[in-house]
Design goal:
heterodimer, A: about 650 residues, alpha/beta, Metallo-beta-lactamase, Chain A, Rossmann fold, 4 domains, seven-stranded mixed β-sheet, 19 helices, B: about 700 residues, 22 helices, 33 strands, about 35% helix, Beta-Casp domain-containing protein (chain B), Integrator_9su (chain B), RibonucZ/Hydroxyglut_hydro (chain B), cytoplasm (chain B), Beta_Casp (chain B)
Chain lengths: ~650, ~700
C-alpha cells in the first residue's frame, strides 16, 4: 500500500500548515493552520479536499498539532466547531495550555480591532480545546489498534514537537517547525533513529546557513542599550509567546549584569499569563534553564513589569514588548504610530515576516513614510533594527536531520518554492534520498514499507544470532601504503562478523508462514529429509607414520582405549571408501570422505574437502570417530597425506599432522 | 518464565519485591527497604537530661541482665516493652533479606514502580557487580531521590550524636535481652531476617545511584537489549507511580502494583494500556493490609461473578468499568481529607498546633491546599511550615510537573490558574519552607499555633521527633498519623502523651472486588496472584488461568508464545520461490538473509549480496526414495539395473541395493534417509544422482 500525502497548506509557501497523510488506511491531519497573509477563504486550508460530503469525523483518524503558532493551529477551532470535526486531537501539554491564548488573542485582533466578521467565537475555542488530548514527549500513544503516534522535542517554541506516526510496518515523521541548535531558552530538536518511509520537513530556511547566535545576540543587546542610554524608547513587536520570553531572558540577564534600571514592559494580559505557563512548563525548555528551577525559575523576570496604555507617551527611556509581532494591527501598531516619528526610538523587527505586513515594508527599504490606510501615513524617523535569529533550523540543520533519520523519501513543506527546489536537489544528490515539494492541494503517493509476517522457531533465531567471526590481518606493506595515502593508522587485525541466516520457510494451509532451522524439519514439521552421497572405492596401501598414531590415540576418548589397539609400526592394507556428501555436482568432486578400516576394533572416518586440480595440497579436513567393536577406520585422502586441521568429534580438536 | 516473590511488603511505604525471569533476562521489580522497623530504635534525645536517662537505660539493661543471669536455668522472662527498651544507637536499616540470596550481577533490569520502591536501590548500585539497567518514571525518580537525600540528612543527626561506631547494638547478647516485640522486628516473623540489617548509604551513594537510573515518561518505550520493550503506565497511587508492561518475543507481561482508578492528585491508573497482555503479575497487596475489610469484600465478588455469567462480553466490560471508575472511593478520600482538615482547624482554634508527618506527596499537597482554603475562609493568620531538607526543592518540583497530575488539576492549569497556590502563599507569608528545625530564620519566624508538615512518618527520624516532644504534653495539639504503622510502638518514646492523635487510612490500592473486575477487563491469558489473597477471591468462570505465588517460592510459567514473530522484508520475500512438497501439502523454500533485532522485533532483510553468496549450505533433499521408482527412473535413462533387498537384524536396518550394470558398474544403496552411490565413473554417478533427485524435493 502507498502512503498518500495530501498537502492542504504550506505547500511551496509559508503559512497555514496542513498536511493530511494516509497510511495503511489511517488518515492523519498534521497541523491545522491559517495563513496570516490572507483575509479571504484562502486563509484556511481547503478542507473540502478531505471529504466532499463534509463528514470529517469519519474521514480522519486524528488531528495532530505540532505547536501553538497560528499558522499551525489557527484553523483548528474553525475546523472542529464550524466544520464539525469531532474526532481525537493530539498536542503536547504546553501547546494545549498556550494555544487558547494565541487563538483568543487572534480572534480579538480580528474582531475587536479590525472589525471583521468572526470565524469562530471564544466559546468555540474553549469547546475545541476540550476535545484535545495532551501528550508528553516520547509517550507512545495508541490512537486505535493500529495507529501509534509519538512526540519528539522540536525546540522551535515551548511545547513544539515533531510527530512520529506508525501504522503496521509503515512509519513517517512530520517535523512541524524545528530548530537544530539550542537557543537561550529552548534545547535543540531531538529524535530517535527510526525506520521511516517518509519525513515531512519544514524548509523555511532551505538555502540559508547561519552562524553562531551569540554575535547576533550581542548585536541586539548593544542596539537596545545604545537606544535606552540615549533616552529613547525601544519597541519590540513579537509573538506573545516564545520569542518574547527568549528576548526577555536575554534582556533581564543583561540588565542584571549591567545594573540597568530602565523599565522593561510587557504589554499586559497575554504575556503575563504566558510567562506563568513558561514557569510551569520549564521542563520543556533547555537543560540549562531547566536545572535552575529549584533555586530560581528562569522565567521569574526581575526587571519586567506590565505596561499600561497611558504609559505610551510617558517620558523617559523604556523597552516594550508588544503584540502582534507583524505590526499588523493591535497594540504594537498603536505604539508604533506614536513612537516611529521620533529619531531616538528604536523598533526591533522579527526575523520572518509575511510579505504584505508593515514589518516587511520596513525591512525591504528604509522608508520615511508608510502608508497605513488609504489616507493615513506614518512618518518613520526612528531606527529600525532587524532581529535575525530565528527559531527555525537552517539548511544545515535540515540536512543533518534528514541524514540522521535516513528515510526512504523526504517531503518538503513550509518554504519558498525556489529554495525548496534547491534543497530538493541537494538532498537527492548528497543523500540519495528521493525528495518532493508538492504544491498546495497536491496529492503525493509514496510506496510504503510492508513486511511479510512469519513465525520463527527458537532454533532458527539462535542459529542466526551465533557470531561468525572472521579475522583479517592486514599485511604491513598494505598498511604502510594506506597509512601514507590516507594518513590513518589501519588496524593490524580486522574482525568481521558477517552473519548469514539460513533457514527453511514452510507454508501450510491456514497457517502463518513458519521459519525453522534445517535440522528441525523432521521434529517440528514431520518432513523427512534424504541424504544423497557419492562414494568411490579404491584400494590403498599405506604405512602410517608413528606421530600420527600417537596423535590420534592421544585424542581418543577413553572408551576407545579399552578396545584392542592396532600395534604400532605396522603396515596396513586398508580398503578406502570415499563418500562425498553432495551439494550440487561441482562440490561432489571436491568433497571426499575417506575411511580406513583398521584391525583392533575401531573405525575412524574423516571427511574433508580438497581441490582436485592444481593446488592439491590445500584442503580442509574434518574428522569423525565412529566406534565399532571390530574395526577402526582411519582416514586420509586417497594417497596424498594432506591433513589440515584434524578435528576429532568426541575428542578435541587436533593440530594438523604435517 | 519464572517468578520469585522476594517480599510481599507491607503497606504504602514498603512495596512488594519480586524477581522475574523473562526470556532469560532477570527483572527485579522494586528495591524497597522496611522503614517501619526503625521503630526499634529510640529517637534522639533532645536535651542533656535525656543523656543521663540514656545512662539509666544501660544501667537498667545491666539490671535485667543480672536478673536473667540469676534465673538462667529457669524460663526466660521477656522484658516488658517500654520507652527504655528501645535501642539507643545509630539506626540500621532493614533491606529485603531474600534479595541477598541472589547474585547482584545476575540482575539485568530493575523496574521501579514508586518512589518507595527505590529507597533500597543505593544498596544494590553501590555493589561493584551491579550492571543492571534501572528504569524509573521521571517524577518517581526525582521524588525518590529527594526522599533518599532527606533520609541521609536525617540520619546524619544520629551519626553526629552517637559517633562512628555503628553496629554496636548488633551484639547478640543485647539483642537477646530485647523485648519480644522488638526481637520480632529484628529477626522477622520467621527469624531469618537478621542478615537484612545494614548501615545506611551515604549521599555519595545516592548520587551514584541516580546516575545509574534511566528515567522515563509514562508510556515511553524503553528497549532492553533489543528484546524487551518496557513501558510504564500510571497506577494512580501517587505522583509518578506506575504499573509496568513488558513485551518480549515470548509474550507480554503486565506488572500491576498498587493502583487507584480515580485518583485525587496523581494521574489515575491507566489500565486500558495493559489490556490483552499474556501474563499479569498481580502485586497489589493493599487489601491484605486492611485485613479487617475482608468480611465486607467477601460477599461482593462472588455475587458479582454469578451475575456476569449471563451477560455478554460487552456488558461485562461496561459494567466492570463502571465498578472500577465509580466515584465512591474518590469521595471517601475527599471526605477523609475534609475530616482531617476540620479536626485540624478545631485544634488550631483551641490554640493547639497540628503536626503532620505523612510521607505521601499527594496527600500533603491536598492538605496544604485545604488548609490554605480553610484559613482563608476563617480569615485566620496561622502559618504553615514545611520542614525538611528537601522541602524547597520538592515544592518547586511539584510546580513544574503538571503532566503527572490528575485531570482535575490539569484542567485548572488549562483554565489559566496556577497549578498550586504555593507560590502566592510563600510570597504573602502563609507558607514557609525550611530545611531544618534549627535554622535561624525559622526560630525568628516561628509562631504557634501552626501547621507543620515534616518527616519522618516512622516518628524516629527528622524534625517530627523534636516537635512531637515539644507538643506531646499539649492536649490541644493534634498529631495526624497513618494507619498501618504500629502506633503503640511508634509513640512509645513520647509517652505519656496528652496530644490528640488522629489515625487515618488513605486509599493505597484497589479493593479485591475491583481487582476481579480489572482482570475481567484486561483479559489476560494467565494471572499470577498472591497466595495470601487466594481465599478472598471467589473462583471465576474465566478464560484465564491462575497461579498463586507466595514469598520466596519460585513458580514457573510456560511461555505464552512458542515461536517468535518474524518480519520478512518484501524485497527479500519477492525473491523467494516456493516448492510444493510431493509428500505433504506444504510449500517450502530456503530462506537466506540478515537478521535484525530491533525494538523487540525480529526482521529478516536482504543483507549484503556478497556476504550472502559467500556462505551456502548444501542442498536439502526432502522425501524418500523407493527402489522401484528409482529403478524405473534409471531404466528411463537407459541403464540396466537389478534390485536386491537386504533386511537388517530385527528389520530395523532395511536397505535396497541396486546394482547398475550398464553403462558402467555402480552400486546404489537406498536406505530410509540416505542414498549412497558407489561408482568409479563420474559421469554415470552424475546421471544416477539426477535420477535420485528427480524422486526427491530439492530445497
Amino acid at each position: 500500500m502507498d502512503i498518500e500525502c495530501l498537502v492542504l497548506g504550506a505547500g511551496q509557501e509559508v503559512g497555514k500548515s496542513c498536511v493530511v497523510v494516509t497510511i495503511n488506511g489511517k488518515r492523519i491531519m498534521f497541523d491545522c493552520g491559517m495563513h496570516m497573509g490572507y483575509l479571504d477563504h484562502q486563509r484556511y486550508p481547503d478542507f473540502s479536499m478531505i471529504s466532499k460530503s463534509g463528514e470529517f469525523t469519519d474521514s480522519l483518524t486524528c488531528i495532530i498539532i505540532t505547536h501553538f503558532h497560528l499558522d499551525h493551529i489557527g484553523a483548528l477551532p474553525y475546523f472542529t466547531e464550524v466544520c464539525g470535526y469531532n474526532g481525537p486531537i493530539y498536542m503536547t501539554y504546553p501547546t494545549k495550555a498556550l494555544a487558547p491564548l494565541m487563538l483568543e488573542d487572534y480572534r480579538k485582533v480580528m474582531v475587536d480591532r479590525r472589525g471583521e466578521e468572526e470565524q469562530f467565537s471564544s466559546e468555540h475555542i474553549v469547546k475545541c480545546m476540550k476535545k484535545v488530548t495532551a501528550v508528553d514527549l516520547k509517550q507512545t500513544i495508541q490512537v486505535d489498534e493500529d495507529l501509534q503516534i509519538r512526540a519528539y522535542y522540536a525546540g522551535h517554541v515551548l511545547g513544539a514537537a515533531m510527530f512520529y506516526a506508525k501504522v503496521g510496518d509503515a512509519a513517517i515523521v512530520y517535523t512541524g517547525d524545528y530548530n537544530m541548535t539550542p537557543d537561550r531558552h529552548l534545547g535543540a530538536a531531538q529524535i530517535d533513529r527510526l525506520q521511516l518511509d517518509v519525513v515531512i520537513t519544514e524548509s523555511t530556511y532551505a538555502t540559508t546557513y547561519r552562524d553562531s547566535k551569540y554575535a547576533k545576540e550581542r548585536e541586539f543587546l548593544k542596539a537596545v542599550h545604545k537606544c535606552v542610554a540615549g533616552g529613547g524608547k525601544v519597541l519590540i513587536p513579537t509573538f506573545a509567546l516564545g520569542r518574547a520570553q527568549e528576548l526577555c531572558m536575554l534582556l533581564d540577564d543583561y540588565w542584571e549584569r549591567m545594573n540597568l534600571k530602565v523599565p522593561i514592559y510587557f504589554s499586559a494580559g497575554l504575556t503575563i499569563q504566558a510567562n506563568m505557563y513558561y514557569k510551569i512548563f520549564i521542563n520543556w525548555t533547555s537543560k540549562k534553564v531547566k536545572d535552575t528551577y529549584a533555586t530560581r525559575n528562569a522565567f521569574d523576570f526581575k526587571n519586567v513589569c506590565s505596561f499600561d496604555r497611558s504609559m505610551i507617551n510617558a517620558p523617559g527611556p523604556c523597552v516594550l514588548f508588544a503584540t502582534p509581532g507583524m505590526i499588523s494591527g493591535g497594540f504594537s501598531l498603536e505604539v508604533f504610530r506614536q513612537w516611529a516619528p521620533h529619531e531616538g526610538n528604536l523598533v526591533m523587527l522579527p526575523g520572518f515576516h509575511i510579505k504584505i505586513s508593515i514589518s516587511c515594508c520596513l525591512c525591504s527599504k528604509t522608508p520615511t513614510q508608510i502608508r497605513l490606510d488609504q489616507d493615513v501615513f506614518i512618518d518613520v524617523r526612528c531606527q529600525i533594527h532587524q532581529l535575525s535569529f530565528s527559531p527555525h533550523t537552517d539548511a544545515k540543520g535540515i540536512m543533518d536531520l534528514v541524514k540522521f533519520l535516513s528515510p526512504k523519501h523526504v517531503v518538503l513543506v513550509h518554504g519558498e518554492k525556489p529554495k525548496m527546489a534547491a534543497l530538493k536537489e541537494k538532498i537527492q544528490s548528497e543523500l540519495g534520498i528521493k525528495c518532493y515539494y508538492p504544491a498546495n492541494n497536491e496529492n503525493l503517493c509514496i510506496p510504503s514499507t510492508h513486511h511479510v509476517k512469519a513465525v520463527a522457531s527458537d532454533a532458527f533465531l539462535q542459529s542466526c544470532l551465533c557470531p561468525n567471526f572472521k579475522f583479517l590481518e592486514t599485511s604491513s606493506e598494505q598498511d604502510s601504503e594506506l597509512a601514507i595515502t590516507h594518513n590513518i593508522a589501519m588496524p593490524q587485525l580486522q574482525v568481521y562478523d558477517d552473519r548469514v541466516c539460513e533457514g527453511v520457510l514452510t507454508l501450510q494451509r491456514d497457517q502463518n508462514p513458519k521459519v525453522v532451522n534445517h535440522n528441525e524439519l523432521m521434529s517440528a514439521l514431520g518432513i523427512k529429509t534424504h541424504e544423497v552421497k557419492l562414494a568411490q572405492c579404491c584400494e590403498v596401501s599405506r604405512e602410517f607414520p608413528d606421530y600420527r598414531h600417537e596423535h590420534i590415540y592421544s585424542n581418543m576418548p577413553p572408551l576407545l582405549l579399552k578396545g584392542k589397539m592396532p600395534s604400532q609400526n605396522t603396515s596396513h592394507t586398508v580398503n578406502s571408501c570415499c563418500t562425498s556428501s553432495m551439494a550440487g555436482e561441482e562440490l561432489a568432486a571436491k568433497t571426499t570422505t575417506a575411511r580406513w578400516k583398521l584391525g583392533g576394533g575401531f573405525e575412524l572416518e574423516l571427511r574433508f574437502e580438497y581441490e582436485i586440480g592444481g593446488g592439491a595440497e590445500r584442503g580442509e579436513m574434518e574428522a569423525r570417530w565412529w566406534v565399532f567393536w571390530d574395526e577402526v577406520v582411519l582416514v586420509e585422502d586417497g594417497g596424498q597425506p594432506v591433513v589440515w586441521g584434524l578435528e576429532v568429534a568426541g575428542g578435541g580438536k587436533g593440530d594438523d599432522g604435517t | 518464565m519464572e517468578l520469585t516473590c522476594l517480599s510481599e511488603g507491607k503497606g504504602f511505604y514498603f512495596p512488594p519485591c519480586h524477581i522475574m525471569d523473562i526470556c532469560g533476562f532477570r527483572v527485579l521489580f522494586d528495591c524497597p527497604m522496611d522503614l517501619s522497623s526503625l521503630a526499634i530504635f529510640s529517637p534522639l534525645p533532645v536535651d542533656a537530661n535525656a543523656i543521663s536517662n540514656d545512662e539509666n537505660i544501660s544501667g537498667s539493661c545491666h539490671k535485667y541482665a543480672d536478673l536473667e543471669l540469676n534465673e538462667d536455668k529457669g524460663q526466660k522472662i521477656d522484658k516488658p516493652l517500654d520507652a527504655n527498651s528501645l535501642i539507643c544507637a545509630e539506626p540500621q536499616y532493614k533491606t529485603i533479606t531474600n534479595l541477598l540470596l541472589w547474585n547482584v550481577s545476575f540482575i539485568d533490569v530493575v523496574l521501579i514502580s514508586r518512589p518507595m520502591g527505590m529507597l533500597g536501590l543505593p544498596f544494590l548500585t553501590r555493589n561493584k557487580d551491579f550492571i543492571a539497567k534501572v528504569y524509573v518514571t521521571e517524577a518517581a525518580a526525582k521524588i525518590g531521590q529527594l526522599m533518599m537525600e532527606d533520609l541521609v540528612v536525617m540520619h546524619e543527626e544520629f551519626r553526629q550524636f552517637y559517633g562512628p561506631d555503628a553496629r554496636k547494638w548488633m551484639n547478640w547478647e543485647e539483642i537477646e535481652l530485647l523485648p519480644l516485640e522488638l526481637r520480632q522486628i529484628v529477626f522477622g516473623a520467621d527469624g531469618t531476617e537478621f542478615g537484612g540489617w545494614v548501615s545506611l548509604y551515604s549521599a555519595a551513594d545516592v548520587k551514584a545511584c541516580m546516575l545509574k537510573v534511566d528515567s522515563l515518561k509514562y508510556a515511553e518505550e524503553a528497549c532492553y537489549n533489543g528484546t524487551l520493550i518496557l513501558k510504564a503506565f500510571s497506577s494512580g497511587l501517587d505522583i509518578g507511580t506506575c504499573n509496568w508492561s513488558i513485551t518480549s518475543p515470548k509474550g507480554s507481561i503486565a506488572y500491576i502494583s498498587n493502583s487507584i482508578f480515580s485518583s485525587a492528585t496523581a494521574m489515575s491508573c491507566n489500565y486500558e494500556a495493559l489490556q490483552r497482555t499474556d501474563v499479569i503479575v498481580y502485586s497489589d497487596f493493599s487489601s491484605s493490609d486492611a485485613a479487617n475489610k475482608f468480611d465486607d469484600d467477601n460477599n461482593c465478588p462472588g455475587a458479582a461473578g454469578n451475575n456476569f455469567s449471563n451477560l455478554s462480553d460487552d456488558d461485562v466490560n461496561s459494567k466492570a468499568r463502571t465498578t472500577l471508575l465509580d466515584a465512591d472511593e474518590y469521595l471517601e478520600e475527599m471526605a477523609k481529607l475534609d475530616f482531617i482538615c476540620s479536626c485540624s482547624m478545631d485544634c488550631i482554634n483551641s490554640g493547639g498546633s497540628v503536626l503532620i508527618p505523612i510521607g505521601r506527596l499527594g496527600i500533603v499537597l491536598q492538605l496544604l491546599e485545604r488548609f490554605a482554603l480553610c484559613l482563608a475562609s476563617e480569615n485566620a493568620k496561622v502559618p504553615i511550615f514545611v520542614i525538611s531538607s528537601v522541602a524547597e526543592e520538592l515544592m518547586a518540583f511539584t510546580n513544574i510537573i503538571p503532566e503527572w497530575f490528575c485531570e482535575q488539576w490539569q484542567d485548572r492549569l488549562y483554565s489559566g490558574q496556577p497549578l498550586f497556590s504555593h507560590k502566592e502563599m510563600l510570597k504573602d507569608g502563609r507558607l514557609y519552607l525550611f530545611p531544618a528545625i534549627h535554622s535561624l530564620e525559622l526560630l525568628t519566624i516561628w509562631q504557634e499555633p501552626c501547621f507543620v508538615f515534616c518527616p519522618h512518618w516512622s516518628l524516629r527520624l527528622g524534625p517530627v521527633t523534636h516537635l512531637l516532644r515539644r507538643w506531646c504534653g499539649d492536649p490541644n495539639s493534634l498529631l495526624v498519623v497513618e494507619e498501618g504503622v504500629d502506633v503503640n510502638l511508634a509513640l512509645l518514646p513520647f509517652k505519656p502523651m496528652a496530644i490528640k492523635v488522629l489515625q487515618c487510612s488513605f486509599l493505597s490500592g484497589m479493593k479485591l472486588q475491583k481487582s476481579q473486575q480489572l482482570l475481567k477487563i484486561l483479559q489476560p491469558r494467565h494471572v499470577l496472584f498472591p497466595e495470601k489473597l487466594r481465599q478472598h477471591i471467589s473462583p471465576l468462570e474465566t478464560s484465564f488461568s491462575f497461579d498463586y505465588y507466595s514469598e520466596n517460592k519460585t513458580i514457573h510459567i510456560s511461555n505464552p508464545k512458542e515461536d517468535s514473530e518474524l518480519d520478512i522484508e518484501v524485497e527479500l520475500a519477492r525473491r523467494l520461490q516456493y516448492t510444493t512438497l510431493k509428500q505433504k501439502d506444504i510449500n517450502i523454500l530456503r530462506l537466506k538473509g540478515e537478521l535484525v533485532v530491533e525494538r523487540g522485533r525480529y526482521r529478516l532483510s536482504l543483507g549484503n549480496e556478497q556476504v550472502m553468496s559467500s556462505q551456502t549450505r548444501p542442498m536439502l533433499h526432502i522425501g524418500g526414495v523407493y527402489s522401484n521408482d528409482l529403478l524405473m527412473a534409471l531404466q528411463k535413462m537407459g541403464m540396466k539395473a537389478t534390485v536386491e533387498e537386504i533386511t537388517g537384524v530385527g528389520g530395523s536396518d532395511n536397505a535396497s541395493i541396486i546394482h547398475v550394470l550398464e553403462p558402467s558398474k555402480a552400486v546404489i544403496e537406498v536406505r530410509e534417509a540416505q542414498t549412497l552411490i558407489s561408482n568409479g565413473d563420474e559421469n554415470v554417478a552424475t546421471l544416477i544422482s539426477q535420477a535420485v533427485y528427480s524422486l526427491l524435493d530439492c530445497v
